[in-house]
């Protein structure tokens, strides 16, 4: 009788031990990391597992990436739930477009159009620059520079003098 | 990095003003800066700083390609000196003049066709292309 009782206790505790330990958190972590590594867009995420609950950290480029990560992790065997603490880092802005602008005919025309209403200023196109000459008021000088910048045209305005 | 230093105050102000997509790169002696200002006032403030840092803006070492946030439907004020602004059939001075907007008149943005030409619509329903330089988002 006593022996049977003892055996039962052994069996029950062994079962409990077996259930609670499988799969182990460390194994889950390895499996999750392996699953994430298969997707090249998921880099820089950190994984922490405790009692089958996975906590994710790190940076994602957008919402889709964040949700995608979470889906992959949730699908790993042994994961009970996922706490997604990933933050979203927007991609850096593209470099200024003026870096690659060429002074083609259409661009030259834009400059000429912009100067049309400013009397006494001439423009020549030399190399990659608009070379301006003439006498201008301070207000018009500002307008000319703004116009050149919006057309993304490099300029030489040393020939612009101040109109008295 | 010398130009980044020369225009440090301008770059700092651009950041403070929250210029969207602010980017700056130095290339062949010119600092290229781009982004979108939230208002005409912010845009004017940056240009005033440029004129302060580089008198007469004559060094030719800054390309400040900043535009002003304006979505379709935005109100634009005609900022010609005093004359009417031509509204044309195509985005070019070759385009036929199909309407005019008066100095200080407020028109509606239809689309930003390119950096220099925007499609606009007047209160009278005239629709066509006008030179963006003379249009300030309200």
Account of the protein in words:
The complex is a heterodimer of chains A (164) and B (138). The longest helix of chain A has 20 residues, at 2-21. In chain A, a hairpin with a 2-residue loop joins β1 (45-50) and β2 (53-60). Chain A contains five helices and seven strands. Chain A is rod-shaped and about 115 Å long. Chain A has 164 residues and is α/β, with parallel strands linked by helices. With 138 residues, chain B is α+β, with helices and mostly antiparallel strands. Chain B has two domains: 2-68, 2-Layer Sandwich (Alpha-Beta Plaits), CATH 3.30.70; 75-137, SH3 type barrels, CATH 2.30.30. Chain B has a five-stranded antiparallel sheet with strand order 9-8-7-4-10, with no helix packed on it. Chain B has a three-stranded mixed sheet with strand order 1-2-3. In chain B, strands 5-6 form a two-stranded antiparallel ribbon. In chain B, α2 (8-16) packs antiparallel against α3 (40-53). The chains are: A alpha/beta (164), B alpha+beta (138).
Write the layout of secondary structure elements.
The complex is a heterodimer of chains A (164) and B (138).
Chain A: H1 2-21, H2 25-37, E1 45-50, E2 53-60, H3 63-74, E3 81-84, E4 87-88, H4 105-115, E5 121-126, E6 129-136, H5 138-150, E7 154-162
Parallel strand pairs in A: 2-3, 2-4, 6-7
Antiparallel strand pairs in A: 1-2, 5-6
Chain B: H1 2-6, H2 8-16, E1 20-27, E2 30-37, H3 40-53, E3 62-68, E4 75-78, E5 85-88, E6 97-101, E7 106-111, E8 117-121, E9 127-131, E10 135-137
Helix pairs in contact in B: 2-3
Rg of chain A, nearest Å: 34 Å
Which CATH top level class of the largest domain in chain B fits?
Alpha Beta
Q: Biggest interface, and residues per chain?
A: A-B, 33 and 33 residues
**CATH topology (level 3) name of the largest domain in chain B:** Alpha-Beta Plaits
In the CATH scheme, the class of the largest domain in chain A would be: Alpha Beta
- List low-pLDDT spans of chain B: none
**What fraction of the residues of chain B are assigned to beta strands by DSSP?**
35-45%
**What is the H/E string of chain B?**
HHEEHEEEEEEEE
Percentage of helical residues of chain B? Answer: 10-25%
User: What is the terminal-to-terminal distance of chain B?
Assistant: 36 Å
Number of strands of chain A: 7
| Poorly predicted runs of chain A | none
